[in-house]
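input
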Amino acid sequence: MATSSYCATANGAELYKHCASNSRLIGFNSRNRSSKLFLTRTSDFRGVKRYFHVKSVSSEPKQKVQDPVTEEGAESVLSSFAPDAASVASSIRYHAEFTPLFSPERFEPPKAFFATAQSVRDSLLINWNATYDFYEKMNMKQAYYLSMEFLQGRALLNAIGNLELTGSYAEALKNLGHNLENVASQEPDAALGNGGLGRLASCFLDSLATLNYPAWGYGLRYKYGLFKQQITKDGQEEVAEDWLELGSPWEIVRNDVSYPIKFYGKVTTGSDGKRYWIGGEDIKAVAYDVPIPGYKTKTTINLRLWSTQVPSADFDLSAFNSGEHTKACEAQANAEKICYILYPGDGSVEGKILRLKQQYTLCSASLQDIIARFERRSGDRIKWEEFPEKVAVQMNDTHPTLCIPELMRILIDLKGLSWKEAWNITKRTVAYTNHTVLPEALEKWSYELMEKLLPRHVEIIQMIDEELVHEIISKYGSLELDKLEEKLAAMRILENFDLPSSVADLFSKPERLVDADTETVEVSDKVEVVTNDEEDKNEDDTGKKTSVKPEPGAKDIDKKTTVVPEPVVIPPKMVRMANLCVVGGHAVNGVAEIHSDIVKEEVFNEFYELWPEKFQNKTNGVTPRRWIRFCNPPLSSIITKWTGTEDWVLNTEKLAELQQFADNEDLQIEWREAKRSNKIKAVSFLKEKTGYSVIPDAMFDIQVKRIHEYKRQLLNIFGIVYRYKKMKEMTAAERKAKYVPRVCIFGGKAFATYVQAKRIVKFITDVGATINHDPEIGDLLKVIFVPDYNVSVAELLIPASDLSEHISTAGMEASGTSNMKFAMNGCIQIGTLDGANVEIREEVGEENFFLFGAQAHEIAGLRKERAEGKFVPDERFEEVKEFVRSGAFGSYNYDDLIGSLEGNEGFGRADYFLVGKDFPSYIECQEKVDEAYRDQRRWTKMSILNTAGSSKFSSDRTIREYAKDIWNIEPVKLP
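output
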């Protein structure tokens, strides 16, 4: 490992070695503080004097830095130590002066955060370097997790918690005049994701590092994230995220790690018979690394993010000097905008092109990096057939699908392998996680657009599709032609394409007989049909001449009529990315038992029949470090006390030991006190963020997730409207007797172009504005929408929650992960039998879960019933709609929102997500919630049993299953 050198230029340029002891790993539970040097200031931070001295905290002689992976140096290099508060404070002081992002006059919280984070990063980098070097030496199989999202959250508390340095940093900052929690709150959430997809990916990285699996994550470094959500009188407004405005202390730019990325151009055949992709637009992807530490382990893996740019030579200096400034910067602007926004709007062709560029950049840069590492580790003896034995690539949803044709392109065009060799390697390397059953989320790309942007990849996809067609015919060739055509239409990667010429003859049909007396004369865009005296003639839609007899009673004035042909609608040619994932990968997994069943039985049923061995289930999980240990210290202490060990943080099976104490009065008292302390913190947060005051003794009823019709925030708010209406019809005494106090909290972002979701946000905020200012209702009911919901907000709200809503239409949520976080924190859930709810209910006990609504196998029939006009809405549901239309929540016209729940057919109508169908069951279930909450002993027992039953939902369990069943990798612990 290389050491880090820093220059102190005050009073003479003398070179100092910064000592976070690069020759040693940051370890655990040891008090060896040897061989550390820190630069410290002699003056107070508030002053302007800048005199320094080198302070030695060890009398040991200096030692030569040794290679951490050599046998001789390993023991010394990997010896562990835990810095004390004084050493930590010295390191923070050093970074405040020598790696500053702020002026030197003051040491305020933002500057304290950056200096603290940079100090922690030193420790992470020592372990990161050792981990990297060890993997290089051992050359074991490594997994690579490719995802468009990594929703990391704040990193400071998580990092020092994993390093077991929380106490040292808290004391050091206290000595420097700051509070650790306040300093940590200065960190912006990394805007690299939106919802569960990105949070899952981040939990997986934590578990991979904690369990010592050799693995990296790959993503994109979005400058502005998705967007920052603001709530105004008009509902949601989007502004650009500013998370990188002051820089990120965690990332390390690797200017020496960059790869070329190409778009457009053309494909030609060289004199050697090979295909060459030439011309077009060239950019480069530059690596930014973020260290990911494991818990109580030296292993520190990597999240490598790609940023896009062009060489300085592409700046048109001549054009700039001529006043054509936009033209001069065009190449750089085109490159940089690829990494501006997560999921740019795709309502325009330009938006679609940008999204596809993003996906290809992630795939191409990551694969080039992976292949370069494979070649380097292989040395002089590169055996490409061993590539799948050293590399596992996991595609998190369909966004990284282009990994398949890109790996084929590199192997064939650049490495000289045959098609057969490359295809065999690709299929053994790549695997696919499906996260949705929603048709619109199973990506399809315009063939025309893809052919223009990625011409060589389209050729490869066509060849994969043709090979698939041959395999289907080989398997099902005995079927009737119509049935075989249906199967091909469902399974092909290319949609709305003619069959390849190699098999087209199999489906040719005999010519039909043509009446020789029929003659047609084409004039302009009309067709004149000339008939004989016996009968009229016309052409069918295949161009064949057929007889058409005149209508009875038709006037026989003349035998010449003019027919205007109906326009022929030609369906667009599309590339089905999910089908390509299934065909090109060796494993396909769903993310909950019910979801994996739907994947096999409905979404990819034809593929499941062809390749049943490919399909697996991997129920999602979340990391218990961030989602209990660090975000909920009061509950963590209770769990440790009553289980007698802290081992539950790594072995969540030990949570089950709480079951035997669920009725214990002492535990219940402690449990309620912990919950209340978390709620008091949430009360302050809600006041600060929204201006609304709530009481901590109310039930905190929370639904926080992406705003989408299938997640049914609309069902929740309609239930609240019904509750409010009934309250208004009662006396104060009746209200108090009937209802327990509730604070109903919503959070989540509606996609910027998703109009109906944004209407739902507007409706929730309007309902809240009315109810929260109603003096008759007071603290009995509050409705709050938390703006800009993110991981940090979740870390505060989830520990404070009493009831959480997971109420999606059954069969539509793949898994969910927030439901797991709520369960771990002792929150009781109301939900449908959807996604991981099914398994959570099984684990925590049916009596500890509030179940309502239609089940997945009933949904198709219920929609059919609606289409046939047989559905009769509940009168309470109609009552709510009428109440909203009456203007009870302001003058805004909600006809379009409510109209989506009405009618029997049509886009945006007919209540596709069955809000009206499940509404009676939902409000009746909410009455049972009130009843249970009144009995606090019963409620607390249910809460304890939810935590005790959540052990299955650790991402550690999920990762072990991926490692064993899909990636075939083993833990590798550093010596």
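quick obs: Residues 1-81, 518-557 have pLDDT under 50 and may be disordered.
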